[in-house]
Amino acid sequence: MINVTLDHLGFDAEEFEKAFTAADFDRCHELVEAGEGFDAVLAGARVRLRERRYLETIGALSDVAVPSGKDRIARDVLLGAALGFTRDYVGGRRLIARALNDLSPGSEWYYDAVHYLGLIGWMRQDQTEAQEAASTELGSADPNHRARARILLSWVALRRGQVLLQVDELQKALDELETAAAPDQQYRANALLTLTLLCRELPLHQIAERARAIFEALPWTSGLRRERFLVTRFLAAIDELDGNELAAFAGFRKAARLAPSEHWGVLCFLDRALLAKNTGEIAFATEQLQEAHEIAQRLSWNEVSGEERSALLVLAELFAYSEPATAEQYLARFRTLSTSVIPILSYGTDPRVKGFEAYSQGVAWLHLGDIGASTAALTEAWSIFEDFNYAWRCALCALALYEATSDQRWIQRAARKIDSWPQSWIARHVACASNSSVLRLDKIPPAKRDVLELVRAGRRNSEIAEQLGRSPNTVRNQLSQLFATFNVRSRAELVALLSKPVVSINEYAHRRRHS
User: Fold this and answer.
1) What are phi and psi of 105, to 5 degrees?
2) What are the distances in angstroms from CA 235 to CA 199, 200, 206, 244, 349?
3) CATH no. for residue 39?
C-alpha cells in the first residue's frame, strides 16, 4: 500500500513496515495495539483495509478529531479508500481529491491517493480513469507501487475482454516485485492468484510452471490465508487438466485443509467429487458429495458474496443424476441469494462468472429432463467461454450440448477445443463420444426417417423416390437435410455413421416423465 515511515513517539514504525510488507497482519495488530497516537490509528486503518474490514476502518478514522497538515491528508486518503470500497464513490472521491490538492509526486501519500482513485474508477466501471491512474503510478520509483499499478491494469484488461493482456500485466507485476528490496507480499500473492487462475483456464503451460515456482518460494503468512488457499486449489485444477489426477486429488485435499470458511470447504469436497465422478471413482464421488451436502445443509448462504456461492450450483449439478428433488432445491436456493458483492472483487461484475453459473445450471437441467432450459443455458455458457477463449470449458459445454441435442457438430467442436489438454479426462470423454456417438432417431421426422432407413439399406435416390412415392427432387432435398443433421458430406459418411448404436430417447428424461 505505502512505504510511509511513521516515526512519532509511541509507535514502532520501522517494525510495523516490515510486518506490513510481509503481510504479517497478526504482528501488525500487536504493534498497533501497543502503539499510541494518530500514527497508530493510521497504521491500524492500513491493516484493516488490507483485511477488507472497511466498516471498521471508517469507524476508526471517523471517531477521532480531524487532524491538520500531513495527518489530515493521510486520513483523507485512507478514509476515502474505505468509503469507496463500501460503494460511497462520491464521498471517497471527494476526500481523495482534497488530499491530492495538497500533494505532488514527491509527497509520501501521493501515489496511494492516485492508486485509490484508480480503484474507485475501476469499481465505478470507468476504465479510462482506472487506466490513467495506473499509468501515473507507473512513474513511481517504488517497484511495489509499479506492481500494484500493473495489477490494476490487468483488471482493466479483464473488463475489456483482453485476457492475454491481463496475463501480460500480471507477469509484469511479478517482475516488478522481483526488483524490490522489500517486496509487498500481498501484491505478489494477489498477482499470483489471478495468474494461476488464468493458467487453469488457458493453455499457458510454461507460465503455470513459473506460477508454481513462485508459490513454492513465497513466505505465506496468516494474512495471506485466502490467497494461499485459492492458489493451491487452482494448481490442483491445473494438475487435473494435465492428466495428473493423483496430484490433483492431493492438491484438492491440501486446499481443503486451508479453506478460510466452511462455505469454501464445501466447494473443496465438490472439487474432489467432480474429479472422482469424471474419472470413474463413483463410490468416492458419492462419499464426497454426501459430505458436502451435510455441511451445506446446516450453513447459511444468504451473506455469501464470492465464488464460494457457486457450491450450490455444483451440488445441483451432481445431485441431478440421482436425486432430482434435491438438485431442484439447490437451484432454488442459489436463485434466492443476494446479488450484493464487495465491489473491489471482480467476481461481482466478471462476465465469466455468468458462464460458470450457466454451465452448472445447464447440466443440472439436462439431467432433470428440462432440455429446452438446459440447451439455452449451455449455449449461453459456450458463448461466454468462447469470447474469453476458455477452450476446455467450451469443450465441456459442447459435450453437454451434444447430449442435449444429439447434434454431432458439438462433438467436433469439443474435440477442437480440448486439443491443448490431450491427457485430461475431458479429452478422454470427447474421444469416447466421438467413437461411440449415439444417434437418436426419435429426433428425426418420420418422412426423413423413411429416407434414412432406405439409404442405410443401400438404395439409390431414384429407388427411394419410387418406393416412397415421392419425387426425386423431394428425396434429394430430404437427403441434403439429413447430411446437415448428421454433419456429413456424402452418402458413404452417412451410412458409416448409421452403423453406430441407435437409441430412441434420453433414458433419464423418459424415466422422469413416467415416474
Assistant:
1) -55, -20
2) 9, 7, 13, 11, 24
3) 1.25.40.10
**Structural domain of residue 31, as residue ranges?**
1-137
**pLDDT by residue (tens digit) across 340-396?**
555 555 545 677 888 988 998 899 999 888 999 999 999 999 999 999 999 999 999
Q: Any idea which residue has 465505478 for its cell?
A: 124
Strand runs (DSSP E) across 118-223, as ranges?
A: none
What is the mean pLDDT of the segment spanning 326-337? 89
How many other C-beta atoms lie within 10 A of the C-beta of residue 50? Answer: 17
Question: Residue 98 belongs to what H/E stretch?
Answer: helix 89-100
**Per-position b or e across 427-440, b if 16+ CB within 10 A of its CB:** bbbbeebeeeeebe
Q: Are residues 21 and 100 in the same domain?
A: yes
Cα Dmax for the chain: 104
Helices (H) and strands (E) in the chain, counts: 28, 2
If asked whether residues 43 and 126 sit together in one domain, one would say yes
Task: Give one word for 487, left, alpha or beta, with left for phi > 0 and alpha for psi -120 to 50.
Answer: left
| pLDDT reported for residue 375 | 96
Q: What is the end-to-end Cα distance of the chain in Å, rounded?
A: 60
For the stretch 173-207, pLDDT in tens is 999 999 999 999 999 999 999 999 999 999 999 99
Look at residue 449 in the predicted model and tell me its pLDDT. 82
CA-to-CA separations, 138 to 111, 150, 158, in angstroms, rounded: 9, 8, 19
For residues 455 and 287, the model is more confident at 287
b/e map of 126-152 (b: 16 or more CB within 10 Å)? bbebbbebbebbeebebbbbbbbbbbb
pLDDT tens digit sequence for 419-473: 999 999 999 999 888 765 555 555 677 788 889 888 888 888 999 999 999 999 9
Task: Centre a 10 Å sphere on the Cβ of residue 154 and count the other Cβ atoms it contains.
Answer: 27
Q: Does residue 306 form part of some domain?
A: no
Q: Is the pLDDT score of 5 beyond 50? A: no
Half-sphere exposure of residue 328, counting CA atoms within 13 Å on the CB side? 6
β-strand partners of 440: 503
Same domain, 446 and 419: no
Query: How far is Cα 47 from Cα 53, in angstroms, rounded to an integer?
Result: 9
Distances (CA, A) of 96 to 45, 91, 119: 15, 9, 12
Query: Phi and psi dihedrals of 493, rounded to 5?
Result: -65, -40
Q: Which residue has the cell 492458489?
A: 231
For the record, the C-alpha cell of 335 comes out as: 436463485
What are the start-end ranges of the E strands in 27-117?
none
Assign 348 to helix, strand or coil.
helix
